[in-house]
Design brief:
The chain is an alpha/beta fold. It has 9 helices and 10 strands. α1 crosses α4.
């Protein structure tokens, strides 16, 4: 498989699969990352793109051959990798995702300790050089170990620890997860919330049967707005493929284009903080702010 610098950007790796992002690239990243980051154990996961499992398998093979242990979170959102790195005091994390890009794309978001993003200024260029050099050291005598774990409950507990649950009111809310990785999280978190949640495109599906995983696209906005009006909901939210972005809607189905977690925060927490403020001050005061 061809390996080039085309996929390396400012904040990660992204490109068409398999032309730019492929298993050989993932393997080489796995071999190079532990030495670059001083990592002995990292968290790894992928979104719902069909190429995710195969790319993750190659990445994990590279990591373990470099004597790096792996916490395999499997299907997840990027912020769950960041949570795992911080909560379990890991040395880094790698998320296989292309965010809101079309389904033909995939990529990697890489983090050091404390979930610090690996960027062009903090080591990504060095990683690019190591990957392109293709001069991996011999596989370590001790292969890294892989531990598979569902961290959903720990992640949700952390999110909810920042919210006053007693303050939340029983709103009816639309949650459009775009057939992405946020679906299982919404299913789990709704059991702990007083909301009546109307789910739209809730089943994860890497074929993207209801359109590309970008909640800002006009067609995707319409699905959320329609559900809000049909169900007389108080608010709505829509997430992208790896729920790194959350878009909010008012009770009239108007897109507010806020609530994103792309500044390094959590889109789930941003959504719940809006719901908390609406519970305290009223829906209209929040959505008209």
């Amino acid at each position: 498989m061809n390996v080039s610098a085309k996929g390396f950007g400012v904040c990660g790796i992204r490109g068409l699969y398999p032309d730019v992002v492929n298993e050989e690239l993932a393997y080489r990243v796995g071999r190079a990352f532990p030495g670059l980051a001083g990592a002995r154990k990292v968290a790894v996961g992928h979104d719902i793109r069909l190429s995710g499992p195969s790319l993750q398998a190659a990445l994990v093979r590279g990591l373990t051959e470099a004597d790096c242990d792996v916490l395999d979170i499997d299907l997840c959102g990027t912020e769950m990798i960041a949570f795992a790195v911080r909560a379990y005091q890991l040395d880094g994390g790698i998320m296989l995702t292309a965010g809101s890009d079309a389904k033909a794309y995939n990529g990697m978001t890489l983090m050091r300790r404390d979930a610090c993003l690996l960027t062009g200024d903090t080591g990504l260029k060095d990683l690019e050089a190591l990957v392109l050099a293709a001069e991996s050291a011999p596989a370590a005598v001790r292969a890294g170990q892989v531990e598979k774990e569902d961290i959903t409950e720990d992640y949700i507990a952390d999110i909810l620890s920042h919210i006053d649950l007693d303050r939340l009111k029983p709103f009816r809310v639309v949650a459009n997860t775009g057939n992405g990785a946020a679906g299982p999280v919404i299913n789990a978190i709704e059991k702990k919330l007083p909301f009546d949640i109307v789910k739209v495109n809730n089943i994860p599906d890497g074929n993207f049967p209801n359109g590309e995983p970008d909640p800002l696209l006009p067609g995707n906005r319409e699905a959320t707005a329609k559900a809000i009006l049909e169900n007389e909901a108080d608010l709505g939210a829509a997430w992208n493929c790896d729920f790194s972005r959350c878009i909010l809607f008012d009770e009239r189905g108007n897109c507010l284009e806020s609530g994103s977690g792309e500044d390094g925060g959590s889109s789930m927490l941003a959504w719940l903080r809006v719901m908390e403020r609406c519970s305290q001050f009223g829906v209209h005061s929040e959505t008209n702010a």
